Amino acid sequence: MRDYYFNKNLIIMRGVLFLIVSFLSSLITPQLYAKTDYKFSAPNYIIGDEFAEIQIVRLNNKGTPDSTYNGKTGFYINQDLKVLEFIQGKALYTTTLLKSSEITFKPQNQTTLYNIKIRHLPDWLSIIPPLLAIALSLIFHEVITSLFLSVFVGVLLLIGFEFSNVIPAFLRVIDSYILEVLRDSKHLSLISFAFMVGGMIALIAKNGGLTGLVNKISAIAHSSRSAQLTTLFLSLSIFFDNYVNILIVGNTMRPITDKYKVSREKLAFIVSTTAASAASLGFFTTWTGAEMVYVHDATSYLRLGNSAFSIFFKSLQYAYYPIFMLILTFALIVSRKDFNKMADAEVNARSAGIKNEQNDKSIEKNIERDIVEILHPESQNGGKWINAAFPLIVLFITAIAGLIVTGTENLYQKMLGKGIPITSQNLSSVWKFLYDFDNKNISFFQKLGELFGNGDFYIALLWSSFSSLLTAFLLTLLHKNLTLKRTTEIMIHGFRVMLSAIIILIFSWSLAEITEDLHATEYLSSVITGYIKPSLLPIVSFLLAATFAFSTGSVWGAMAILYPLLVPVSWMISASSGLSISDTESITYNVIATILSGSVFGIHCSPVSDSTIMSSIASDCNHIQHIKTQLPYAATIALISVLVFFFSLINFHWIFNLGLGTILIILIVKFSGKRVE
């Protein structure tokens, strides 16, 4: 009986022990003998026919990547068995998708399923954001909102065009695009330049320096021709911003041109065309500063080695429209001739004198009122011309010095890398060895181009704008024009004046980023290649820029949308067409020049352009009359520019092309112009 109980107890003890061991094993076994886990990384979307790369990482017992594993493992991928090779615990699987889909991965001999969702975006969707920006700008004549909405729609395309993604897309515009473009030092350099130039303009205007400078120069006017030449010279002198140029020169020269019976239409024409041409050709203007940043971003995307300044400098040889417009203006003044409706206006002015046009004041609602406000001096007693001249001289000289200093430093490092036996980093040593740079002799102007081209344009912008602002600030205090508090307030007001332009820049950079993420340039290149010859791209760029600027009245808007899109496209199409590097560069430089040139032509013809409106107001000219008299001149120069462009396709030297255009202008003025004494 005891043996029975003993055996029974033994059985019970064994059973309990088995249960305990089983329980402990259930806790231990998953850690010691767990199935292999994997971690998958895949893009949220792919565009067009690009490959989706899915990275598979093998995990160890601790759940961390197993970098010691090398071998092959089978996976059922959408039920098809594939063998993937792991190297240091990682494998890569690539596939293409024709539509949005879910990809399933099931390791062989396991039951676990891994689901990967990838969205497929048709490549034609990539051009929706820039097209939307253009369409909205044309409809509403407002660029900032149009740019923001186009970026917002671009983000929605990336994360999913669904109602639930509206708020996430809005937030991503801020944190992933606007914030990202503001991290770029080049962008921050241009923003700082714009702010400081705005502050400098406000100071030299309010302390009376600009008025004093204009009065000083305008004193040389003694006839109708000299009054017009003085207006032209003044407009070229105030080259750094077209708004300031128009308002200062137009308002100041109007009494003088009235005295010598120069028509208000002719005054408006001179200030409008010269201001825009000077702003598009000058090295350190608000327009070209923005242009060079767009060029830098585009060439960085293409991984080109040339600096933005070097590319801009080389593109000037193709800037036919603004150059020819300046030549036409000078030729008309010197010859005392005009044609078409301008000739009638000039004849009437000489015979009947100048009448106040009673301009339609409703157009003033379209201009930048802050700019108008800061240009009025604090005191009506005038100011010292040196208060304006000296800061402007400092702006120019410091910018050139910045390019020389940074260019010298960069060339020195390049020479060391090439094994050139240079012993000093000073300018004279670098200049001397430039003759042997790249194992070739180069001329004085080529050396100068190398020096400036290797300079840091953005550092030069910062040095020059800060130096000119500080100079204007100190001169204002030194001459006791304004108190310290008032001087500071005016400077900050000048900062605010540039805010709208800076917002346009920020949103345009964001649009460029979104179009790059959507691969818009690749899609456009693939569509256009074979249908448009690369040599015709500059003409297309000119017409697109002119149409956009004419419809919206905005050069900034045209640059914002067209530069990030057309510059890379022109390079890709030219390269894919089998053109040489030199020919590809030539077409790209031409496109860079024609976008800004076409934009200038567009605003010269546009009745809604800020520049033409300001020209009408500053000259007190009837706005419609200003457009009617200016339009024939703008159209004439546009036709000459297109004609000369076709000669450039035959690879004539740029000096010949400019000379040809100049001869055509002289002939037109000579045989079509009507002499007005």
From TrEMBL:
Location(s), subcellular: Cell membrane
What are the GO cellular component annotations?
A: plasma membrane
Report the main location listed first in the record: membrane
Q: Does the keyword Membrane apply?
A: yes
Q: Which residues form the Na+/H+ antiporter NhaC-like C-terminal domain?
A: 452-646
Q: What is the official name of this protein in its record?
A: Na+/H+ antiporter NhaC
Keyword annotations for this protein, in alphabetical order, are: Cell membrane, Membrane, Transmembrane, Transmembrane helix
Q: Which organism is it from?
A: Sporocytophaga myxococcoides
Transmembrane stretches, start-end: 12-33, 124-141, 147-167, 188-206, 226-246, 267-287, 318-335, 385-405, 457-478, 490-511, 531-550, 562-581, 587-609, 630-648, 654-673
Per the record, the domain of life is Bacteria
Q: Which InterPro entries would you find in this protein's record? A: Na/H_Antiport_NhaC-like_C
Tell me how this protein sits in the membrane: Multi-pass membrane protein
Q: What lineage, starting at the top, does this entry show?
A: Bacteria, Pseudomonadati, Bacteroidota, Cytophagia, Cytophagales
